[in-house]
TrEMBL record:
<dbReference type="InterPro" id="IPR008867">
    <property type="entry name" value="ThiG"/>
</dbReference>
<keyword id="KW-0784">Thiamine biosynthesis</keyword>
<keyword id="KW-0704">Schiff base</keyword>
<dbReference type="GO" id="GO:1990107">
    <property type="term" value="F:thiazole synthase activity"/>
</dbReference>
<feature type="domain" description="Thiazole synthase ThiG">
    <location>
        <begin position="78"/>
        <end position="245"/>
    </location>
</feature>
<dbReference type="InterPro" id="IPR033983">
    <property type="entry name" value="Thiazole_synthase_ThiG"/>
</dbReference>
<comment type="function">
    <text>Catalyzes the rearrangement of 1-deoxy-D-xylulose 5-phosphate (DXP) to produce the thiazole phosphate moiety of thiamine. Sulfur is provided by the thiocarboxylate moiety of the carrier protein ThiS. In vitro, sulfur can be provided by H(2)S.</text>
</comment>
<keyword id="KW-0808">Transferase</keyword>
<dbReference type="Pfam" id="PF05690">
    <property type="entry name" value="ThiG"/>
</dbReference>
<dbReference type="InterPro" id="IPR013785">
    <property type="entry name" value="Aldolase_TIM"/>
</dbReference>
<comment type="pathway">
    <text>Cofactor biosynthesis; thiamine diphosphate biosynthesis.</text>
</comment>
<feature type="region of interest" description="Disordered">
    <location>
        <begin position="240"/>
        <end position="259"/>
    </location>
</feature>
<protein>
    <recommendedName>
        <fullName>thiazole synthase</fullName>
        <ecNumber>2.8.1.10</ecNumber>
    </recommendedName>
</protein>
Length: 259
């Protein structure tokens, strides 16, 4: 669903379409710095003081993907506690990883965890593969946003399969956010040109030679891509058909003309 103005996720408006994840430590981790970043961060981190080796909802749910199904009851209890600590805030991002090296999502466990979270009353934004069928399944389960990878997390390889993203975007009834693989501003622009509602990135900015300048470039790339999507690109043609320059007074070579 494409909104001309603010990005809307489950009746919540956001003033930006570019988000920076919190996996790399920020330069300013003071309370004031946290407040300044709050408008652009999407990951919701909940500190839990209990005998579980976790400091966030994201990590608790990753345990399911790493072969710890016995923790399911504890995770559900942690989610209930999280809602209390969050004072009613229920928008969370879900990651269930299947491989610690590629950080590729474990989709069977992602589907199970999505159902668990939705049943617990959370509004779930789901990190997932770029499989159109599984994205539709997540949407049907009640996910409020799907967040497919464009390429592997932290790889910077860009949009490897634009056709898959289009097949996710075109029928989607919830926002589609590219969650991984963006390496530079042109990647962000392409994602937005395809019709994505937003882009989430971290390493592309944190790993740049000049992170501040790259962040500025990313913002412009997202804005340009969004405007191009709304404007609608011209159709692609094998031949141009008609010239765009004036043809009056054009000298053409006829039969028998000197070469």
């Amino acid at each position: 669903m494409h909104y001309r103005g603010l990005l809307r996720v489950k009746r919540r408006d956001s003033g930006t379409r570019i988000y920076e994840a919190a996996s790399h430590p920020p330069a300013d981790d003071s309370p004031a710095g946290a407040v300044r970043r709050a408008a652009t961060l999407i990951d919701l981190v909940v500190r839990k003081y209990a005998p579980l080796p976790a400091a966030s909802l994201t990590y608790l749910l990753r345990l399911l993907g790493y072969g710890a199904p016995h923790l399911t009851a504890q995770i559900q209890a942690a989610l209930r506690l999280a809602r209390e600590l969050l004072d009613g805030h229920d928008l969370v991002k879900l990651e269930v990883l299947g491989d610690p090296h590629t950080l590729f999502p474990n989709m069977p466990e992602t589907l199970k965890a999505t159902k668990t979270l939705v049943d617990e009353g959370f509004k779930v934004m789901v990190y997932c593969t770029d499989d159109p069928i599984q994205c539709r399944m997540l949407e049907d389960m009640g996910a409020v946003a799907v967040m497919p990878l464009a390429s592997l997390l932290g790889s910077g390889m860009g949009i490897l399969n634009p056709w898959h993203l289009r097949r996710i975007i075109d029928p989607a009834r919830v926002p589609v956010v590219v969650d991984a693989g963006v390496g530079t501003a042109s990647d962000a622009a392409i994602a937005m040109e395809l019709g994505c509602d937003a882009v989430l990135m971290n390493t592309a900015i944190a790993g740049a030679r000049d992170p501040i300048l790259m962040a500025s470039a990313m913002k412009k790339g997202v804005e340009a891509g969004r405007e191009a999507f709304l404007a609608g690109r011209m159709p692609k043609k094998l031949y141009s058909g008609a010239p765009s320059s004036p043809t009056e007074g054009l000298i053409t070579a006829g039969p028998g003309s000197a070469k």
